[in-house]
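User:
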Amino acid sequence: MNTSAASQAAGIELVALTKQYAAGSVAVDGIHLRIASGSYCCLLGPSGCGKSTTLRMIAGHESTTSGDILMENRNITDLPAAERGTAMMFQSFALFPHLSALDNVAFSLKMKGMAREARHRQAQDLLERVAMGHLAQRKPGELSGGQQQRVALARALITQPRVLLLDEPLSALDPFLRIQMRAELRRWQKELGLTFIHVTHSQEEAMALADTMVVMNQGRIEQIGSPHEVYNRPATEFVARFMGGHNVLQTTQGKVAVRNDHIHVAPLDSGANGWPATVNDVEYQGTYVLLGLHLSEGGGESISVMLPESRFTERPYAPGDRVSLSWAAWQAHSFAG
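Assistant: Predicted structure:
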């Protein structure tokens, strides 16, 4: 995977995809999206932005109002979920509590009428692949959250999907395990060579996992790009604010986004030429210190500045301190359009 040919082929393509409910509310509003085959794509946005509805339409668990869903140039819009070549991992994992890990993984093959020995052999092979072979006879209640996720992944993979859909798969895990499991998801995606489409509300999670990030808002796509592109060159004010780590400011050049780690802070009486501001609060975050400030001009807008711990130790600031803020011209990003 990740060859130039694979990166050009569309694993999934959405064409003017729309979902409107009977009450008139529009959950997904005519979006166009092309996801490269064998890539890891994260749909990202606040609650109610349409990302989960989009995932469910791709899966066939939600009907479309209009538009098309194509997989490898095959129109799957009206196909039943079982015939699409997709599989889904749910937020809750949705494992059967009364079945062993082995029987959970083998369940879809049982429904297809496969003999017990054959389906167990395939299920055991997949459990071995996700390092769960030794726990094949345990029930979900006897497994940790991370172990349950591995079983859920093996169960999704046994249908041999071309596209794996993941609906907030890490949100039920504790923070430490979440970091560990996202690394495993990325490793599995690379090893399997499948297209992964992952819904999340976590900016950090999307940046850690995705080849392509799709930021959504109110049923529309605000920006598509690599994590580096989206974070460093937000296309809209919404993206800059949602991604975090940016201050949106009105300057003589218009509205711009400036990363909070790109802003230089100096005492106001130091003679530095910059925007005057007052320190409101100081938060110690370990490797860095986050300053909350009010600008003295432009209506007293609140902004934040991230200082490395070493720099703050050399010159600490406290609430009430008057400071001057500055940044290089190239560090102020103007929004597209």
